[in-house]
Amino acid sequence: MANLEVSTFIEHFSAQLEDTDVASINADTVFRELDEWDSLTALSLIAMVDEEYQVKLTGDDIRSSKTVAELFEKVKAKAG
Amino acid sequence: MANFSIKNVAIKGISACVPKNIESNINYPYLTCDEIEKFISATGVEQRRIAPPDVCASDLCHVAADKLLNDLQWDRNSIDVLVFVSQTPDYLLPTTSTILQDRLNLSTQCVCFDIPLGCSGYVYGLSVITAMMSASGLKRGLLLVGDTLSKLVSPTDKSTAPLFGDGGTATALEIGETESPMLFNLGTDGAGYKAIIIPDGGCRNLAKTASFISKTYEEGVERNDYQMALDGMEVFSFGITQAPKTVNSLLDGFNINKDAIDYFVFHQANMKMNKMIAKKLKLPEDKVPMSLKYFGNTSSATIPLTIVAQLHNSMRMEPQRMVLCGFGVGLSWGAVYLETNRILCPQLIEI
């Protein structure tokens, strides 16, 4: 069973970023405003969620989320 | 769940043809150097073959088929059925297969029709032509599968242009006793039809002046409605979920021993997606050939093109147990288990 803590999700999320100071990432981070966020980062995010949570995160899930916490809520709802 | 088997039809040869014109992504003008490096490392696509304006998918398939028929020394009159699988036909109508019947000098007794599927098209096409041959007794069949999507993507759309290339293939099939049937798992989810779409130019939205006006969706994503739109996130999410599922349904449904399979050839979507699929299925890298680096995503052609480009010696020299899996536009997917026995597989043709 995947660890459904937001802190763990933030760690997994941060691991997808290469050029961003991960210490600056928290639940309220508006991920789309990160300098390095682009469509390829989105693919890494989908792959991470699939691997870590065995959940299918869709394009709509990402488009309708603003913050890292909102992404996590989508994952949690599907994993639950 | 559509699991079914087809007996007594064997693949006798596979050939492929690509345009000799190479476009290198490193020169793609609409991304910065850093962006293009990131793109190449994620998608694996370094080069693509782009057809000149006067070359269509049918032309590439025609050359591939000509070579294959000559090498097999098959009398043109002996071809009973020709199926052309493509989403880039010569015309809205008539079908391209009928034109190819004439160009290939096949008999007017030949059964010809098109199947307009994309990424799943090779597996679907194989299922249709082999089922028809097996049921009807038609003895020899040609499955021509290819696309020239470069004609329908916007050069200024970074989400499609650096990803897609052109290619055409031919697969020769013959009735006869085979040791193993072909085993299929096919499926469809039309709820995702907008994930990959050219919105205008069909009968739902007839082509009109506005169809050709370019719109900017985000920086680097500029296209008109007569060009292909790809929802990368949706397709990625679909691919990494559905492709492993359909392969597992096939293996489980028919009790196939995964370790006994020589090669798993997947539709070449992008490297990140394909690696993820192979990882989820726990497949060793050397059993999963890739051709993305040289040709990009050639839609329906990727599976036979990868076989010809990467495996042509093994295909000729040794019997192979293979699983082929296509997935994408539709949304549509399919996987097939088949065995080949030293088939004809000429080197990739370039025109």
Tell me the strand order in the biggest sheet of chain B.
Answer: 6-5-7-8-2-17
CATH architecture of chain A: Orthogonal Bundle
Our Rg estimate of chain B from Cα atoms comes to 19 Å
Helical residue percent band of chain B:
25-40%
By CATH, the topology of chain B is Peroxisomal Thiolase, Chain A, domain 1
Global morphology of chain B: globular
Give the amount of beta strand of chain B, in percent: 25-35%
CATH topology of chain A: Non-ribosomal Peptide Synthetase Peptidyl Carrier Protein, Chain A
Average pLDDT of chain A, rounded to a whole number, is 91
Q: Give the tally of β-strands of chain B.
A: 17
Question: Keywords, please?
Answer:
heterodimer, A: 80 residues, mainly alpha, Non-ribosomal Peptide Synthetase Peptidyl Carrier Protein, Chain A, 0% strand, globular, B: 351 residues, alpha/beta, Peroxisomal Thiolase, Chain A, domain 1, five-stranded mixed sheet, 17 strands
What does this entry look like structurally?
The complex is a heterodimer of chains A (about 80) and B (about 350). With about 80 residues, chain A is an all-alpha fold. Helices cover about 50% and strands about 0% of the residues of chain A. Chain A has one domain (about 5-20, about 25-80): Orthogonal Bundle (Non-ribosomal Peptide Synthetase Peptidyl Carrier Protein, Chain A). In chain B, the strands form five sheets. Chain B has a six-stranded mixed sheet, sandwiched between helices. A five-stranded mixed sheet of chain B has the order 1-9-16-15-14. Chain B has a two-stranded antiparallel ribbon with strand order 3-4. Chain B is an alpha/beta fold and about 350 residues long. Chain B is built from eight helices and 17 strands. Chain B is globular. The chains are: A mainly alpha (about 80), B alpha/beta (about 350). Chains A and B meet through helix 2 and helix 3 of A and helix 1, helix 5 and helix 6 of B.
